[in-house]
Design goal:
The chain has 187 residues and is α/β, with parallel strands linked by helices. It has a single domain (4-177), classed as Aldolase class I (TIM Barrel, Alpha-Beta Barrel), CATH 3.20.20.70. It contains seven helices and eight strands, in the order E-H-E-H-E-H-E-H-E-H-E-H-E-H-E. It has helices spanning 13-25, 40-56, 67-73, 87-94, 107-115, 131-144, 160-167; strands at 4-8, 30-33, 60-64, 77-80, 99-104, 120-123, 151-155, 173-177. Strands 1-2-3-4-5-6-7-8 form an eight-stranded parallel barrel, surrounded by six helices. Helix 1 (13-25) runs parallel beside helix 2 (40-56) and helix 2 packs across helix 3. The longest helix is centred in the N-terminal third of the chain and has 17 residues, at 40-56. It starts with a strand and ends in a 10-residue tail after the last strand. The mean pLDDT is 89.
Length: 187
């Protein structure tokens, strides 16, 4: 089973709930709420509904950046996208019981975030880089350096062929932003 993190960027409860319900009914077991420009007060009602849906489906629920909301709804973790919110600082604020993740662009980022106790990473190559090469090279270096942090690849749209090609590099999961695909490969 390939872990697929489904990224929900809806800013209203109804749309976010519909998207999460569809993903969970399709068999996905990881919901990621991304409301980057919203206040904690705007994120909270959406997060409360998604937390409940994820609990009902025994799915992991992660919120991007809003640490106070993560604590308030007892999300499973936080994904940190803001440069001013380092993993080490968030770990001190949230403690060990929450998953923490962030984005890495190369092996140097992987080393840095591992030292700061990231539980998993999104590996996002630079736009000009060949993504498959970056995935393969970074994961090879991680293996050689005994860095066990799980890595997910972020993909803007899904095709089974592209997913299989990415997974062949050693990536352990996919983070999907965009329309929910028909999933034949397992969630």
């Amino acid at each position: 089973m390939v872990p697929i993190q489904y990224i929900i960027e809806a800013t209203d409860v109804s749309t976010a709930s519909e998207q999460a319900q569809a993903a969970l009914e399709a068999g996905l077991r990881w919901i990621h709420l991304r409301m980057l420009n919203a206040s904690d007060e705007e994120v909270l009602p959406v997060a409360e509904v998604l937390r409940q849906l994820c609990s009902e489906h025994e799915a992991t629920f992660v919120i991007e950046n809003h640490l106070e909301v993560v604590k308030a709804v007892k999300a499973d973790g936080a994904f940190l996208s803001a440069a001013d919110l380092p993993v080490g600082k968030a770990r001190m604020e949230l403690g060990e019981e929450f998953l923490l993740a962030t984005t890495a662009h190369d092996i140097a980022d992987v080393r840095r975030w591992r030292r700061e106790s990231a539980d998993y990473l999104w590996l996002v190559p630079a736009p000009e880089a060949d993504a498959l090469t970056v995935y393969a090279d970074t994961l090879r270096q991680m293996y050689e350096e005994d860095i066990p942090t799980p890595v997910c690849a972020v993909i803007p749209s899904f095709s089974e062929a592209a997913a299989q090609e990415i997974l062949a590099t050693g990536v352990r999961g996919l983070a999907l932003a965009g329309p929910l695909p028909s999933l034949d490969m397992g969630a």
